[in-house]
């Protein structure tokens, strides 16, 4: 093989790796489809592909990515095997996948070589940048070029990525610009009876939402709300603390320390006409708050540890997004929102105040929300094509 020297050197570099415990789940019955992503973010799109494969074709799915990704029912999520011949061989012997789809473009050479050797149908999708496993540094002559030259399907997110893969060794006929895959429905559910009841109580009042707000950002949110009330005196803030155990202290600070009129959903209190801050908890009701709030600030992104919520959640439900400079694991999504002028980025508490004041104009919030919705709904057609490709790989396209 043209990459035999590079692969030999690569595999030799892994000989000192400790063997895994191999306490893998039992292989499900049926034609197992293996989906792999190189990152937590990449696993989001692959989880949507898994949902489609399970729902439409009934195949069990093995989904691997860093951090044991979670997929829909019917998916087994786990870390990928260590990239050395012994681990990969044991992994493939156990799971016996009938098709392998890898996302993003980072190749695991021992794995890809073994898949090719066993003639398991293989495709690269959502491909961005070609490369060898990031944590394996070394000189591997001809390795990437040799592996890519044998991959029959390389579907990239754009023409720039396509040129990079062709230059790195992929066969021109194998490379196609497919676009970016859908990242799953971010439309969170909500009880319609609750939505109607709260919408009736809120009426025509302007509303904004601050979700997963850490203690370090609480005062920035409150100061922004204070300034917002000067522009819209009936403005209601729906506040979701990141740490629910802080709710009592936060409410005491707002009411006793600063004189705010606060209602708490946990105590079955409603947002009355005089309520200025509505403090809510509960991970199951984000879909409700996004539906009620035309503006959402994503907590943790300003001065916290990073944004915890997927920004496509408010985007999919028509809420304009404000966020800080700390994207957490959602950097790629925030980048897409920024490129589409579909979110308002702020760097400080005063910036948050300014952004809120600007978006209290319904027209401006609507334009931002519409652009964000476009980003959230993008990629469904690409995922359709990948599902079709997978069926052809399995010989089920007829």
List keywords for this structure.
398 residues; alpha/beta; seven-stranded parallel β-sheet; 15 helices; 41% helix
Describe what this molecule looks like in 3D:
With 398 residues, the protein is α/β, with parallel strands linked by helices. 41% of the residues lie in helices and 16% in strands. The chain contains 15 helices and 16 strands. It has a seven-stranded parallel β-sheet, sandwiched between helices. The chain has a seven-stranded parallel β-sheet with strand order 12-13-11-10-14-15-16, sandwiched between helices. A two-stranded parallel ribbon has the order 5-7. It is elongated, with a radius of gyration of 24 Å.
Look at the helices and sheets and give the structural class: alpha/beta
**Average of the residue pLDDT scores:** 92
User: Which term fits the overall shape?
Assistant: elongated
Tell me the Rg in angstroms: 24 Å
| Strand arrangement in the largest pleated sheet | 3-2-1-4-6-8-9
Fraction of helical residues: 40-55%
**Share of β-strand residues:** 15-25%
Largest sheet: 7 strands, parallel
Uncertain residue ranges: none
Annotation, overall tally of beta strands:
16
Tally of individual helices: 15
Distance N to C terminus: 34 Å
């Amino acid at each position: 093989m043209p990459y035999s020297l590079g692969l030999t050197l690569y595999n030799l570099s892994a000989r000192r790796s400790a063997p895994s415990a191999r306490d893998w789940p039992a292989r499900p019955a049926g034609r197992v489809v293996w989906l792999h992503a190189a990152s937590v973010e990449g696993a989001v799109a692959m989880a949507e592909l898994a949902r489609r494969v399970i729902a439409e074709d009934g195949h069990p799915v093995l989904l691997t990515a860093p951090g044991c990704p979670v997929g829909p029912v019917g998916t087994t999520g786990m870390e990928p095997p260590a990239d050395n011949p012994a681990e990969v061989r044991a992994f493939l012997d156990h799971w016996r996948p009938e098709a392998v789809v890898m996302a993003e473009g980072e190749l695991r050479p021992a794995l890809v070589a073994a898949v090719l050797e066993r003639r398991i149908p293989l495709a690269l999708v959502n491909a961005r940048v070609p490369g060898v496993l990031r944590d394996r540094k070394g000189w591997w002559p001809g390795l990437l070029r040799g592996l890519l030259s044998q991959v029959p399907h390389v579907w990239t997110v754009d023409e720039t990525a396509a040129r990079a893969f062709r230059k790195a060794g992929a066969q021109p006929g194998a490379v196609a610009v497919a676009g970016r895959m859908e990242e799953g429905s971010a439309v969170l559910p909500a009880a319609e009876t609750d939505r109607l009841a709260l919408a009736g109580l809120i009426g025509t009042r302007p509303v904004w939402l601050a979700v997963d707000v850490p203690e370090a950002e609480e005062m920035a949110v409150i100061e922004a709300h204070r300034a917002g009330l000067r522009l819209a005196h009936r403005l209601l803030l729906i506040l979701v603390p990141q740490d629910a155990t802080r709710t009592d202290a936060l409410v005491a600070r707002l009411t006793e320390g600063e004189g705010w009129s606060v209602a708490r959903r946990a105590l079955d209190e409603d947002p009355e006409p005089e309520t200025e801050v509505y403090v809510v908890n509960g991970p199951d009701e984000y879909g409700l708050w996004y539906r009620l709030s035309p503006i959402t600030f994503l907590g943790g992104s300003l001065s916290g540890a990073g944004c915890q919520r997927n920004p496509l959640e408010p985007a999919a439900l028509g809420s304009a997004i404000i966020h800080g400079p700390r994207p957490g694991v959602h950097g790629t999504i925030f980048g897409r929102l920024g490129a589409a002028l579909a979110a308002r980025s702020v760097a400080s508490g005063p910036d948050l105040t300014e952004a809120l004041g600007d978006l209290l104009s319904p027209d401006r919030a609507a334009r931002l929300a519409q652009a964000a919705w476009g980003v959230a709904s993008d990629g469904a057609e690409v995922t359709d094509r990948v599902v079709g490709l997978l069926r052809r790989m399995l010989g089920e396209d007829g």
